[in-house]
Hints:
Order of helices and strands: HHH
Amino acid sequence: YGWAGMAAVVIAYTLINFSLLEVDDFYYQFLNVFGSLGILINAFYHRDYPAAILNMIWIAVAIIIIVKVFF
């Protein structure tokens, strides 16, 4: 899960920086949620709690943006 999560976050970061997606684009936020979820699972498995907390926050922010923009 960790590698797939890392790939999703890097893809999201790359797409946003090359202006291929916008911040309020669903796909950008989905990549952030999916990626952070993978990293979160991996972090808990390895008892890397700082990384787990960071990714919980990352997921929360992305979900808030999804709800704000689409609902």
